[in-house]
Amino acid sequence: MASYRKRSGGWRAEVAKLGVRDSQTFETKAAAVAWATAREVEIASQNGKSRSTVAMTLSEALQRYKRDVSPTKAGQRWEELRLDNFDKTLVWVGDLMSSITSEQVAQWRDSRLKTVQTSTVRREMTLLSSVFEIARTEWKACLVNPVRDTKRPRNMPHRERRVEASETTALINRLGYIAGEPPQTLLQELAYAFLIALETAMRQGEILGITAQWVNLPERFVRLPKTKNGSSRNVPLSKRAIELLAVLYEGKRPADRLFRLESSSADTMFRRVRDELGIVGLTFHDTRHEAITQLARKVDVLDLARITGHKDLKSLMVYYNATASELASRLD
Is 158 a catalytic residue? Predict the structure, then answer.
């Protein structure tokens, strides 16, 4: 008999039949019931047949996933680093996938929560679950996905950090920004990237990866051929964003990147300068919160979602952080 639980992301269906356990989460209860019914029929039809699995260790699965699956994703580099870390640190990485239990996953989860943030553990569990799922459905290396049967830690409250005008001024001055002057140093490039982020709500990696061929100043947009969610989008440009990009665009050939700066270096440089200035708790990504909150005053919510690339309004609201005073000023 299947069971169903209401969760924040929808409805979770859990099937336990003839020694086989499986679960999935769906947007609606009807979809969950349909899947559970079909899954129970599938399990029953396999009863009495061979249910053997391909002998594959978790280490082998991690390397296969890294080779065959990760290259198809926008977050390839992040996945590769995490997969390698799993291979080095998981104590049961040498076990057959068919023998790994949800209890082992839970012990690892609890251990990780002592050293990293909840959001990191949730992302790592998502990746590990993906490895088990493709091993179950395509590689036939296991019958169940133990990560799906392991409770995930609760999400922390959404970040609401905004960028204050005084912080922007202090940062770009320290980075050596000179208005209208092409950047000569990587620090000056970082200042340009920071200011463009505040105007456009683009992510750091999206900005630093822009090539001249995707910049259309006459039509006032930048084309991002591949973004974090795997799709492309056109980002409209304010007059201020055009001024900033025009300085970087001048003299570039179509295939040239506007920035020499890489994301890994940008993160390190930003944190160092921030700490030198005594600015507490600010990250480069907070520019996205600030930009989205400011843009929400100018465009309606559907247009805002198109600008930022969010596919659902719930995710977009994570970045909208208007203060009570700002909202009150619009009531009069």
Answer: no
Query: Is residue 220 left, alpha or beta, with left meaning phi > 0 and alpha meaning psi from -120 to 50?
Result: left
Same structural domain, 112 and 255: no
- Looking at per-residue pLDDT, the higher value among 48 and 317 belongs to 317
pLDDT for the residue 328: 66
Structural domain harbouring 12: 3-46
Catalytic: 4?
no
Number of domains in the chain: 3
DSSP strands (E only) in the chain: 3-7, 10-17, 20-26, 215-216, 221-224, 233-236
Residue 51 covered by a domain: no
* pLDDT value, residue 188: 96
Q: Classify each residue of 284-298 as buried b or exposed e, where b means 16 or more C-beta atoms within 10 Å of its C-beta.
A: bebbbbbbbbbbbee
pTM above 0.70, yes or no: no
Given the residues 203, 233, 274, 289, the one annotated as active site: 203
Residue at 40: amino acid letter: E
Q: What is the DSSP letter of 234?
A: E
Catalytic, 152? Answer no
